[in-house]
Amino acid sequence: MPLSSANSNVTQVDFTSLRGRVAPGATIIAVGGGKGGVGKSFVSSSISIFLAHLGYETLAIDLDLGGANLHTNLGVSLNTRGINEFILDPSLSLGELAQPTHWPKLKLISGASEVFDIANIDEVQRSRVMSSIYNYKTDFIVLDLSAGTHTSTLDFFLMASHKVVVFTPEPSSIENAYRFLKASFFRKLRRYEHQLQLKEQIDELLGNRGAHGIRNPADLIRVLVEREPVLGLKLKNILTDLNFEIILNQARTRQEIDMGGALQSVCNKYFGFPCGFLGGLEYDNAVWQSLRQRNHLLMSNRQSHLYGQLLSIARKIAKTQSLKAVV
Ligand SMILES: Nc1ncnc2c1ncn2[C@@H]1O[C@H](COP(=O)(O)OP(=O)(O)OP(=O)(O)O)[C@@H](O)[C@H]1O
Ligand SMILES: [Mg+2]
Fold first, then answer.
1. Are 189 and 231 in contact, with CB atoms under 8 Å apart?
2. How far is the CA of 37 from the centre of ligand 1 (A)?
3. Does ligand 1 come within 6 angstroms of the Cβ of 217?
4. Which end of the chain has fewer surrounding CB within 10 Å, N or C?
5. How far is the centre of ligand 1, averaged over its atoms, from the C-alpha of 133 (Å)?
6. Does the residue 311 lie in any domain?
């Protein structure tokens, strides 16, 4: 995978109000992935339901601003006011928008009635959304993200302690998911390079990738640490915190389920830090059949493999509740 476009088009966001802060309220889980239709909303809704089912107060937020459908996945009606209205009206608080669901411990902040382009959010609006999420008091907050690598989507992804990326076994989904992870990696790298005064070095290394033998992010960091042992190592430690987590969805065969481990190994080598594999999920027709009945698979199919696979993922996440994101 080329490193090229990842370092261009990076806007500077003022993170001073958030940097170094530990989320006081909740453990945040962001569910992203480059491609549309891979199952981000299904996975977000399922993790939210299971965490609530396990006894945790949970808030699910639909941050797919242009194509909100988390409410459909949860079998509830679209609220008249959702996250889009929150973005447009500074007098609103997140708490006012949280609506109940079928699960007593699960609340939802839906997308909204109006189609809203994520490209229209400015930095001030984005920072307000992020700081409000950080300050919201609950056990878990699950963020359902849009497809693509818009800077707002990347920042919502990076703010979570669990940065979960959904792959399906198709080559285009794998390619897009790596593109999304690479864009997140560079978004974080670019955020810290000024602070660590490494920008010039990094630009030079990326400008002469071939000469330096840099084929992937892991190579970039390795060469940087050779040149700048102290600051390079500091940056490496910051980036190691990214700790991406993979879910393989819509697997139709045993071999496809086993691809999860292979994707994890590639991810480890490509980025040079450990990525987690949260689990594989089977393709099951019951998913869309339940949705059509405005239901969720988890309400009617407790005997299915998928039920057990989702429960296992939610349990893994629940175990790490004490880990909190540091921006
Ligand atoms: N494991 C699964 N088995 C069967 N169908 C699934 C599974 N996961 C997701 N689906 C179906 O695939 C379709 C896409 O899922 P979903 O809407 O969750 O994807 P998405 O990544 O959120 O898409 P978008 O980027 O458009 O928001 C839906 O019809 C959903 O019901
Ligand atoms: Mg979706």
1. no
2. 5
3. no
4. N
5. 25
6. yes
